[in-house]
Specification:
Elements: H1 2-20, H2 26-48, H3 50-54, H4 64-83, H5 85-111, H6 129-148, H7 152-161
Length: 162
Protein backbone atom coordinates (compact mmCIF):
# COMPACT_ATOMS: atom_id res chain seq x y z
CA UNK A 1 0.00 0.00 0.00
CA UNK A 2 3.01 2.30 0.41
CA UNK A 3 3.46 2.72 -3.39
CA UNK A 4 -0.18 3.66 -3.89
CA UNK A 5 -0.13 6.16 -1.02
CA UNK A 6 3.13 7.61 -2.34
CA UNK A 7 1.61 8.00 -5.80
CA UNK A 8 -1.55 9.76 -4.64
CA UNK A 9 0.00 11.91 -1.90
CA UNK A 10 2.83 13.06 -4.17
CA UNK A 11 0.36 13.83 -6.97
CA UNK A 12 -1.71 16.00 -4.66
CA UNK A 13 1.31 17.85 -3.26
CA UNK A 14 2.88 18.34 -6.71
CA UNK A 15 -0.41 19.52 -8.20
CA UNK A 16 -0.91 22.11 -5.45
CA UNK A 17 2.66 23.40 -5.82
CA UNK A 18 2.42 23.54 -9.62
CA UNK A 19 -0.94 25.29 -9.41
CA UNK A 20 0.51 27.92 -7.07
CA UNK A 21 3.35 28.44 -9.55
CA UNK A 22 0.79 28.74 -12.41
CA UNK A 23 2.45 25.92 -14.36
CA UNK A 24 0.82 24.82 -17.59
CA UNK A 25 -0.04 21.15 -18.07
CA UNK A 26 0.16 20.73 -14.30
CA UNK A 27 -2.04 17.62 -14.21
CA UNK A 28 0.35 15.64 -16.39
CA UNK A 29 3.44 17.09 -14.77
CA UNK A 30 2.17 16.35 -11.25
CA UNK A 31 1.23 12.83 -12.37
CA UNK A 32 4.74 12.21 -13.77
CA UNK A 33 6.33 13.52 -10.56
CA UNK A 34 4.07 11.23 -8.53
CA UNK A 35 4.83 8.18 -10.66
CA UNK A 36 8.54 8.95 -10.38
CA UNK A 37 8.25 9.10 -6.59
CA UNK A 38 6.40 5.80 -6.58
CA UNK A 39 9.06 4.23 -8.78
CA UNK A 40 11.79 5.45 -6.43
CA UNK A 41 9.97 3.71 -3.57
CA UNK A 42 9.30 0.48 -5.48
CA UNK A 43 12.77 0.48 -7.03
CA UNK A 44 14.30 0.84 -3.58
CA UNK A 45 12.12 -2.02 -2.34
CA UNK A 46 13.91 -4.25 -4.86
CA UNK A 47 16.98 -3.87 -2.66
CA UNK A 48 15.25 -4.00 0.72
CA UNK A 49 13.05 -6.99 -0.13
CA UNK A 50 15.20 -8.67 -2.78
CA UNK A 51 14.81 -12.20 -1.42
CA UNK A 52 11.01 -11.94 -1.32
CA UNK A 53 10.88 -10.41 -4.78
CA UNK A 54 13.07 -13.21 -6.12
CA UNK A 55 10.45 -15.63 -4.78
CA UNK A 56 7.91 -13.98 -7.09
CA UNK A 57 9.68 -15.54 -10.07
CA UNK A 58 9.16 -19.15 -11.17
CA UNK A 59 11.97 -21.67 -10.66
CA UNK A 60 12.66 -21.72 -14.41
CA UNK A 61 13.86 -18.08 -14.33
CA UNK A 62 17.66 -17.93 -13.92
CA UNK A 63 19.58 -15.29 -11.96
CA UNK A 64 16.50 -14.25 -9.96
CA UNK A 65 18.31 -12.07 -7.45
CA UNK A 66 20.28 -10.31 -10.19
CA UNK A 67 17.06 -9.74 -12.12
CA UNK A 68 15.42 -8.23 -9.03
CA UNK A 69 18.35 -5.83 -8.56
CA UNK A 70 18.37 -4.96 -12.27
CA UNK A 71 14.65 -4.18 -12.34
CA UNK A 72 15.08 -2.06 -9.21
CA UNK A 73 17.75 -0.02 -10.95
CA UNK A 74 15.57 0.24 -14.06
CA UNK A 75 12.59 1.46 -12.02
CA UNK A 76 14.69 4.18 -10.40
CA UNK A 77 16.13 5.15 -13.81
CA UNK A 78 12.61 5.25 -15.27
CA UNK A 79 11.54 7.54 -12.45
CA UNK A 80 14.34 9.89 -13.41
CA UNK A 81 13.33 9.57 -17.08
CA UNK A 82 9.79 10.69 -16.28
CA UNK A 83 11.17 13.87 -14.72
CA UNK A 84 13.12 14.82 -17.87
CA UNK A 85 10.63 16.28 -20.37
CA UNK A 86 12.56 15.12 -23.44
CA UNK A 87 12.57 11.53 -22.12
CA UNK A 88 9.11 11.34 -20.54
CA UNK A 89 7.23 9.94 -23.56
CA UNK A 90 9.71 7.15 -24.33
CA UNK A 91 9.99 6.37 -20.63
CA UNK A 92 6.19 6.21 -20.40
CA UNK A 93 6.02 3.66 -23.23
CA UNK A 94 8.84 1.65 -21.66
CA UNK A 95 7.07 1.62 -18.29
CA UNK A 96 3.78 0.55 -19.85
CA UNK A 97 5.59 -2.42 -21.39
CA UNK A 98 7.33 -3.06 -18.06
CA UNK A 99 4.03 -3.13 -16.14
CA UNK A 100 2.62 -5.58 -18.67
CA UNK A 101 5.73 -7.76 -18.39
CA UNK A 102 5.73 -7.92 -14.58
CA UNK A 103 2.07 -8.92 -14.36
CA UNK A 104 2.88 -12.66 -14.66
CA UNK A 105 5.26 -12.34 -11.69
CA UNK A 106 2.44 -10.82 -9.64
CA UNK A 107 0.13 -13.66 -10.70
CA UNK A 108 2.78 -16.26 -9.81
CA UNK A 109 3.39 -14.61 -6.44
CA UNK A 110 -0.34 -14.55 -5.65
CA UNK A 111 -0.81 -18.19 -6.67
CA UNK A 112 2.10 -19.20 -4.42
CA UNK A 113 1.11 -16.90 -1.53
CA UNK A 114 4.47 -15.09 -1.67
CA UNK A 115 4.93 -12.44 0.98
CA UNK A 116 7.68 -10.35 -0.56
CA UNK A 117 8.41 -8.42 2.64
CA UNK A 118 9.06 -11.50 4.79
CA UNK A 119 10.23 -13.81 1.97
CA UNK A 120 7.76 -16.47 3.10
CA UNK A 121 4.75 -18.21 1.59
CA UNK A 122 2.12 -16.70 3.87
CA UNK A 123 1.05 -13.90 1.52
CA UNK A 124 -2.44 -12.88 0.46
CA UNK A 125 -2.89 -15.46 -2.26
CA UNK A 126 -5.05 -15.36 -5.40
CA UNK A 127 -7.63 -12.96 -3.97
CA UNK A 128 -4.88 -10.31 -4.09
CA UNK A 129 -5.18 -10.37 -7.88
CA UNK A 130 -8.61 -8.71 -7.62
CA UNK A 131 -6.67 -5.67 -6.42
CA UNK A 132 -3.38 -6.09 -8.26
CA UNK A 133 -4.60 -6.56 -11.84
CA UNK A 134 -6.83 -3.43 -11.81
CA UNK A 135 -3.94 -1.60 -10.13
CA UNK A 136 -1.62 -2.54 -13.02
CA UNK A 137 -4.23 -1.20 -15.46
CA UNK A 138 -4.51 1.98 -13.38
CA UNK A 139 -0.72 2.47 -13.51
CA UNK A 140 -0.74 1.91 -17.28
CA UNK A 141 -3.52 4.48 -17.74
CA UNK A 142 -1.71 6.90 -15.42
CA UNK A 143 1.42 6.62 -17.55
CA UNK A 144 -0.44 6.89 -20.83
CA UNK A 145 -2.22 10.11 -19.89
CA UNK A 146 0.69 11.72 -18.08
CA UNK A 147 3.72 10.72 -20.17
CA UNK A 148 2.70 9.22 -23.50
CA UNK A 149 -0.20 11.50 -24.29
CA UNK A 150 -0.08 14.28 -21.67
CA UNK A 151 -2.04 16.81 -23.74
CA UNK A 152 -5.15 14.67 -23.26
CA UNK A 153 -4.93 14.77 -19.48
CA UNK A 154 -5.81 18.44 -18.77
CA UNK A 155 -8.81 18.37 -21.12
CA UNK A 156 -10.20 15.27 -19.44
CA UNK A 157 -9.64 16.73 -15.97
CA UNK A 158 -11.10 20.09 -16.96
CA UNK A 159 -14.34 18.45 -18.17
CA UNK A 160 -14.77 16.81 -14.79
CA UNK A 161 -14.29 20.11 -12.98
CA UNK A 162 -17.13 21.84 -14.85
Amino acid sequence: MVPEITLLATFLAAFIILRLKHQENRYAQAARIAMAAMLFVTGGAHFGFAKGMAMMLPEIVPFKLGLVYLTGILEIAAGIGLLIPAMARKTGWWLIAFFVCITPANVYAAMHHVNLQTATNDGNGPEYLWFRIPLQLFFIGWLYFSAVRPAAMPRVAARHLV
